Amino acid sequence: MQTADVTEELARRVVAAAGRALDVELTPEQALIQASPREGVDYQGNLAMSLGKRLGRPPREVAALIAGALELGDIAGAPEIAGPGFLNFVLRKEWLEARIAGLLGDPRLGVPETPRPRRIALDYSSPNVAKEMHAGHLRTTVIGDALARLLRFAGHEVLPHNHLGDWGTPFGMLIEHLADVPAGQRAIADLDAFYRAARQKFDSDEAFATRARERVVLLQSGDEETLAVWRELVAESTRHFNAVYDLLGVSLTDKDIYGESFYNPYLAAVVEDLEKAGLTEVSDGAVCVFPEGFRNRDGDRLPLIVRKRDGGYGYAATDLATVRYWTAERGATDLLYVVGAPQAQHFAMLFAVCRAAGWLTGHAEHIAFGTVLGADGKTMRTRAGETVKLADLLTEAVDQAAAVVAERSELDSAGQAEVARAVGIGAVKYADLSGDRERDYVFAWDRMLAKEGNTSVYLQYAHARTQSLLRKAGGQPGGTQILLDAPAERALALKLLRFGEALKAATDGYAPHKLCTYLYETAVTFSRFFEECPVLKAASPELRASRLRLTTLTARTLALGLSLLGIEAPERL
Ligand code: ARG
Asked: Which residues fall within 8 angstroms of residue 134, CB to CB, at 6 or more apart?
């Protein structure tokens, strides 16, 4: 399937023309082609300004030479040269019509698969055992899931791994606390309450604290009885996490769990390798690596602690083993970590050490995200001042969505309950995905469930409207003829052709919000089309069929786009 990407198509031709006219070699990106914000212009090329500077020639003259050498075939007429040297393109109607018609039979809507598939290890969700998932885990789970979908759709192989915090000193007290409950009655109703109770016993009961410390040693030495209780604890926690994943419609399963404990067998070799490479130093009894370029405010070098003074291994050591495992043993070409922004330095140091050790030669990136804030602008808390549990938050989302849907639904109550889930969960996810991920965002029900504006509810309504229109028309028509005479039809067609570009920007930049923005613009463009262009009562049968085809393509674009964000598009709301 040929790409539907107009930007790319124009860029290729502009680059070729610049080569012929000016003897310069440019990449397609350097053609600086973009959709034009100007009325009556579809695309513009902005390369003449920088090229003029580089060649020491007036930009308008450069633009004219490129225009003269351009071979656009039937795509567009000769570009107009505007302002300081913009090349303004107006696409030919017939070409546009043929392009849109070409999308009708294409399940990928003109989006090509990458010619260079990569094998991407993607760390996301990664909650901690014996603790409830909170709003921060919502972000990593939702963003990670969207990235997994986007990357797979682009043709990459994605290896998800859920880096559960399932190891370390607190497990002594947690296991001991669970072991105090008779076997067979160890279901944990509330993970946070369980954790608090263990901590309280540890702080107040000296004998318990001693037993807890001994448990850590037993756990680390692989004592079978201890491991059995530990496994129960992990299983109880995983049950809670899976309930959240289910509610969210996130595909993580038990086979994606690669908790901290998984890397235990590799830790000794990690230290050994680093020592052999001459990278370690002993500082305060701990084995450390001081990667170059990392210093604190006082100018002291910062250590990545590989082995603690007591011989134990911590978070950093495990992450070193993680990198080594996914590159060396699993052949990952890319390592992505969807983790909150506060861990930026940890990952920067980790990558630096792994590169120095030779474990990391490909791409590694910390996909950072900001904090979820409450209405008061502070980290979101319950009224009682506790962190908000993700499960409670999602249940409330569905309840709130049910009220919104009930306001104007054509469905019976069972149908409404079903879409409430799609709408509520979609709203939470979309609110998280639609902003630049590195920024904090304020969690506000009324805003995320608004029927107007850049929300998933708005997109879901737009999609449902397309479905209702197609139902009234008795289904989508066969044939492929597309007619684009009205300005609103043309605008919609231009938007539909930009789906691939939006996906590419969202995927390459790990920036789902770019897809959100595109989908929103598409829905707005469709609604203008819907207002200005009668569909069922179009002036001719051909026009009616063409408009129904545009409606079908809009529906498919919205549904596919939403699905790549992990959001459902119900047929009716
Ligand atoms: N469990 C950690 C937390 O909840 C996140 C782990 C992220 N992944 C990693 N490989 N360090 O903060």
From this structure: 387, 388, 389, 390
Q: What is residue 327's DSSP assignment?
A: I
**What pLDDT shows up at residue 3?**
58
Inter-axis angle of helices 541-564 and 135-153, nearest 10: 130
Which of 200, 232, 251 terminates a domain? The answer is 251
Q: Which domain holds residue 543?
A: 390-564
| ipTM for the predicted complex | 0.99
Query: What gap in Å lies between CA 23 and CA 407, rounded to an integer?
Result: 64
Half-sphere exposure (CA, 13 Å, Cβ side) for 169?
12
User: pTM of the full predicted structure?
Assistant: 0.95
The answer on 413 and 325 residing in a single domain is no
From the alpha carbon of 322, which atom of ligand 1 is closest?
A: 10
Using 50 as the pLDDT threshold, list the residues of the chain that sit under it.
1
**What pLDDT was estimated at residue 1?**
40
Pairwise CA distance, residues 413 & 406, whole Å = 8
Tell me the CA–centroid distance for residue 315 and ligand 1, in Å. Answer: 8
Strands (E), 19-118: 33-35, 43-45, 80-82, 86-89
Q: Which two tokens stand for residue 328?
A: 């060396």
Question: What DSSP string runs through 152-205?
Answer: HHTT-EEEEEB--B--STHHHHHHHHHHTSPTT----S-HHHHHHHHHHHHHH-
Do 269 and 224 lie in one domain? The reply is: no
Q: Whose CA is nearest to atom 6 of ligand 1?
A: 126
Distance 548 CA to ligand 1 centre (A): 48
Q: Count of domains in the chain?
A: 4
Task: Give the pLDDT score at 4.
Answer: 62
Q: What is the number of the ligand 1 atom nearest to the C-alpha of 340?
A: 12
